[in-house]
Amino acid sequence: MVLFDGECPMCNLYTNAFVKTGMLPKDGRRDYQSNMDTVCPLIDKQRAVNEIALVNLQNGEVTYGVKSIFKILGNACPAFAPLFLCKPFIWLMSKVYAFISYNRRVIIPAPASGDGYAYQPTFKLHYRIAYLLLTWFCTGYILTAYAHLLSGVVPAGNAYREYFICGGQIIFQGIIISAFAKDKLWSYLGNMMTISFAGSLLLLMPLALHHWITLNPIIYTMYFMVVAGLMFLEHLRRSKLLSIGYTLSITWVLYRLAILVIILN
To answer: What span, in angstroms and rounded, lies between the C-alpha atoms of 43 and 51?
Structure first.
């Protein structure tokens, strides 16, 4: 039986996929908020919250994190079992798993009714900083490519303009939230960069389309504005979940408007 985070939509999704594909029996998953002790009294509760736990109901053996995933996949696809025993591969995938697991609440936030369970995911600063750096780089890279489609509407900048804009917003918003809700600094920045990264992913479609069809720059600009509007709505939603009010949403918009004025002039 897998014990997963019932307050995490992403965890719920992939463990449900294990059941639907037959990798786990119908009763082979349970959210850890529903009393882990009834499944395995000796389980390490905090570790099970940080890393998905797979419990052998016959002998009480428990595996955690990526090893749990490998056991499930290796049982369903025996051909991959040797790969899942390769130590360098295990080490690499354990880092990837930890990167996602320790950032899961900012990738897809828990619902407003969540965060009531006694045990919560451990915060690890180096994984959060790594997440901010990765999303900053990817967002800057995509925006740099998309900026060329706006030629004639928005002045072209140097190769590093979008990286500076994106990085500047992290610093600017970080200063603002530190002034009144410092305890939520890293949660907010993680959520903010998820929004920025998701918005940049939406720009990949017109970027791909541009290889076959060349459209008027105004159309690309209008599409960008629609994406920015969706990002703003998501920013409002996540700010509500974090209980930080509208201040950060207002400064988020003001920063972008100020940058736009600077670019146009």
So the answer is: 12
